[in-house]
User: Fold these one by one.
Assistant:
Number 1:
Amino acid sequence: MGKIEWAMWANEQALAAGLIYLTGGIVGVAGQFRGWEFAAFGVAAGTFVCLLEYPRSKRRKGTSVARTGQYCFTVVVKAFGPLTRNYYVRAFLHAALCVPGGFMLATVLGCVCLGISSLIYLSAAIHGEHWEPILPRTESRAPVAESVKKPPQNPPPRPPPELRRKRMEDLEGAAYVNPIAVTANEY
């Protein structure tokens, strides 16, 4: 059975948590609820979490699929070096950012989701995972083999070589020899 890549799950959870936190913060600020300052913090924290979590990390197997437009964010996240690459730092950062969201009803769901993603990141860090950027491929493709350049001339199903149709220049040689005797139907 394969190993679970916890960071992949934590990234998806944290991105969703950031969007939920941001939405709850917008609702809290727009509604001018009591303690709307916590909602304003939720808007800032949700935006920060979304920007931090948008670029996916490279998987161990190498089957990573980058998100659309992630390269710009990857450069920024990569520039901060060990602060963003280390999952212990991300776990404690998310845990700290989710605390103020617990003081207002509009941001509680984002707070809980961010807390869960913090625990998943902590599990990823304990299992020795770290963030690696998905960079665009710079390698060139290998040259195409000669057999691929020249496609087959006849469509499938292709008969064995000894039964293939011969060229039409030699009419006698192009004719097939039918192994089954053909007789006219007499009805």
Number 2:
Amino acid sequence: MAIAAAQGKLIAVIGDEDTCVGFLLGGIGEYNKKRDPNFLVVDKNTSVQEIEDTYKRFSKRDDIDIILINQNIAEQIRHIIDSDNDNPLPAVLEIPSKDHPYDPAKDSVLRRAKGLYSAEDMR
């Protein structure tokens, strides 16, 4: 247990080229022992199946605790993200991209958090 805590965990990114490059320049790019990266650059030629497979693979990896995904890409695999909320880790955070602004109404984490509290709890 202490060894796992000492190792640290990774952040994974599923995003457009600008998002991935920014995070990679920030130093989050890693390969595991199987030479699998912790990022996926999504472009117009990336299939929804490939995005789904990568998300599932990141979710199963024990060295990843946070998955950052562009919100417009998350919309393409919303059914998987919403059905995969049994475990708190990895945390899935939807982020805006350069071309698509953040829409809080589409964020599944924010929708679940709003369901936990009523308006009177915030007063």
Number 3:
Amino acid sequence: MPKKRSMKDIGKQDEIHPSSRRFTQLNRVVLRDDKLARMNHLRHKSKNNHVSRAIVFKLALEQAKATTFTEAQIHDVIQQYIARKDVELAEEKAKRRPGRPPSAKQQQLTMSIEQEKKEYETGFYCPDLRDVESCEQIILWSGDFNALPRIKFTRFSKPKEEVMQE
């Protein structure tokens, strides 16, 4: 296993020949740093996604002032969560002149909505609000990512009759 080096370990980088050993070392270090930064970004994006979902379900539970939800209520909250970007997408479509390609923001919104819809068909990962203990934990939850493991999460799939109708 090669030693994981950093820029500091390799030393000065004045003039390096492109086919030298030091150049290949530097190249490996730069590629490794880029990979670590990319993986760190994906991890933070995933964390934010879980936290935003938990916040939406916490707000829905607090607004309903209920101790638990039925599966139908959970599916309604999931559909509201998926539809939260529809207004913004409609505004972006309205801004665009006819015959022009969609903007980058519109493409991103469309892609994220489609991704969430596909996830809902296969199994949407969200807090299990059918369980009383889980509901209590989510109400007490302060919004911290590190406290999320206390809350029971599960996957809810779109009901089969809705999948058949579309």
Number 4:
Amino acid sequence: MKSMKLIGSLSFIWLVMAISAVAQPSSSPAPVLDNAGRALERGVEYYINPAITDSGGRFTLINRTGCPFYVGQENVSGLEGFPVTFTPFIEGETVIRENGDLRIVFSAATICVQSTAWKLGERDPETERRLIVTGEDQSSRSTGNYFRIVKASVGTNIYEISWCPTQVCPICRFDCGTVGNLVENGKRLSALDGGVIPVQFERKA
């Protein structure tokens, strides 16, 4: 009789432990780190730099055909380019985490007098690649304004920027893509659906 009670008690303890383990929230995704190993923070300005040589310079605003301006890179590495700020989709989140939807906004003003937020743009008719433009997505969920930072498969503190806003709209089906560059008339434009450019983040001094 005592052995039956002991078995029953142990079974109950194991059941409680199993339920508790299931109820525990999953650990948060890893923070995105800058080139000094510090976690990226909401609202802080960072430069986006290519992580490999001969891949252009810092990310910047490109005047392609007048307004709106496009997202792109300086042609050569150096001190040119504009910093950006990151705003996570998850309200109250202060740390930028891997694979989380977020807005990317240049800390700059243009003659277009409009938002400098990154936005998924039109397809280039010649290459069929989707360009990254600036401005506000006027759709109901503004999915075009949400990107994410994904850890690159190699390197330390090296990442890729992709468009796949499944946190913003979990039930939507997206044609996801990762940012690379497209050279057009001597200008480096950012675009999806092609070669990928790995990047690092440098906190503005």
